[in-house]
Amino acid sequence: MKNPTLPHHEVVVVGGGQAGLSISHGLKAEGIEHVVFEKHRAMHVWRTQRWDNFCLVTPNWQCALPGHPYRGDDPHGFMKREEIVQYLDAFRAHVDAPLREGVAVELVKPLPEGGFLVRSSEGECTAQQVVVASGGYHEPIVPRLAERLPAQVVQLHSAQYRNAAQLPPGKVLVVGSGQSGAQIAEDLHLAGREVVLAVGDAPRCARFYRGRDVVDWLADMGYYEMPVGQHPLREGVRDNTNHYVTGRDGGRDIDLRRFAIEGMQLYGALTGLDVDGATLRFAPRLREVLDQADRTYNGINASIDRYIDEQRLQAPPASVYEPVWQPAEERETLSLTGAGITSVLWCIGFAPDFRWLDAPVFNGRGHPVHDRGITRVPGLYFIGLPWLHTWGSGRFSGVARDAAFVVQRVTELRSTKVRTTVAPNALVDLAVV
Q1: Which of 17, 406, 362, 369 is nearest to 228 (CA)?
Q2: Do 219 and 395 contact (CB within 8 A), yes or no?
Q3: Average pLDDT for residues 284-298, to the nearest whole number?
């Protein structure tokens, strides 16, 4: 497999975020030679694609990267952006990975004789195995209708948003109500900006219920241990939008209905732009999506109620959320100029971009097909994707377990390669050659 004219590595890890460094941690423990290529700087996304008031939506105790659990004095709090970066920088120092920053991987391709060709911005090499740890959120999604909005309207993706002062005076249209959209809408609202929110199908959940953080209850109930194959939606859960909630100011619910009472204007999902280029169109489903989000909210709480009853636990009384506001009508159009909208924030997510990976491991939508990160191509793995194995796979809470599993498979395949390249009964060092 080796090309004597090219540098060779036992394992190439693509991506220097928490997933890639978690793999490096495990490979070092096994004594497996490897290199980690990072296109930018380690933990690039956490440094550059989070707004000023960003904080975790899961409690700090869930930060459990391998060999680096949260050790602060506020396990049930929510680290802010700078604290998260400090935690991750300490993890980087702890791992001390063979990391090459500023190296963009341009091609990974299986070789006919086994192993892989890896082409990067610093040249070519070969690898016995490759772990893709670059995540699944690469290309900011902005719809084509954005091209037709008036030139004077400032447009940003959520990855570019930092704070309210970044935007010109006037109303702000936030498109999307997932975790980023709901929290950015709240950030603008608390800053005194007039916000129009195009509400999508994202569900919501309570921050605290019956005396505890909902995350604590769900952890006790085993939800975070549930593998994707046992989830009612099976692999379909990977396409789900995350529940909106916040850890801001110690944590609280995000209730879009209450925002409406306080002056935020809610519409259904944005569906189009009239030919005049100035009139937006929205789906007449605002009441429906708000009601569905509340059903999810109450359904999660009801599952906690059942758990408390089954375990005969002492807890404050149960409750059911009742809507504090209902839309008087379904508004389907909005004039940008008439409403005074000067900014649009696109909070509708990211698309994967694995064009550099030339291997038959993708479905029709460009998502990798795998079983717990293991692909059909021997020696090619993924890590750090949402629901790779459990809910925590794309978060600080579950990546350590995923990394340990992938490293185990790397080690097993490496041992197999060793056995198949050594003559029977030969008294030699069993190092991969």
Answers
A1: 369
A2: no
A3: 97
Residue 426 lies in a domain: no
Burial zone of 176 (CB within 10 Å; 0-12 exposed, 13-18 middle, 19+ buried) = buried
Beta bridge partners of 36: 13, 99
298, 328, 346 - which closes a domain? 346
Same domain assignment for residues 291 and 331: yes
- Supply the DSSP symbol for 261: H
The tens digit of pLDDT for each residue in 205-261 reads: 999 999 999 999 999 999 988 888 877 766 766 667 789 999 999 999 999 999 999
From 346, 370, 385, the end of a domain falls on 346
pLDDT for res 419:
44
Same domain for 79 and 223, yes or no, is no
Residues 169 and 302 grouped into a single domain: yes
> Which residue range(s) make up the domain with 23?
8-138+352-421
Tell me the three state secondary structure of residue 327: coil
Single-letter amino acid code for the residue at 280: L
User: pTM of the prediction?
Assistant: 0.91
Q: What is the DSSP letter of 392?
A: G
d(CA 36, CA 403): 14
Q: Are 14 and 105 in contact (CB under 8 A)?
A: yes
> What is the rounded distance in angstroms from the CA atom of residue 407 to the CA atom of residue 389?
15
Q: Specify whether 320 is located in the same domain as 356.
A: no
Question: Do 111 and 148 sit in the same domain of this protein?
Answer: no
Could you tell me the two tokens for 335? 């004039």
- 278: which 2 tokens? 């100035």
| CATH number, domain containing residue 297 | 3.50.50.60
Amino acid at 187: D
Give 7-35 as a DSSP string: -EEEEEEE--SHHHHHHHHHHHHTT--EE
Q: Where are the beta strands (DSSP E) in 261-388?
A: 265-267, 270-273, 279-282, 333-335, 341-346, 350-351, 380-382
- Phi and psi torsions of 317, nearest 5°: -60, 155
Q: Give me the number of domains the chain comprises.
A: 2
298 touches 321 (CB < 8 A): yes
Asked if 303 and 199 sit in the same domain, the reply is yes
Residue 413: inside a domain:
yes
Nearest-angstrom CA–CA distance, 281 and 51 = 28
Tell me: do 294 and 399 sit in the same domain: no
Q: Which two tokens stand for residue 428?
A: 């030699």
> Which residues, in sequence order, are bridge partners of residue 380?
130
Mean pLDDT of all residues belonging to the chain: 92
Q: Is residue 430 part of a domain?
A: no
Helices (H), 237-313: 256-261, 286-311
Would 431 be classed as within a structural domain?
no
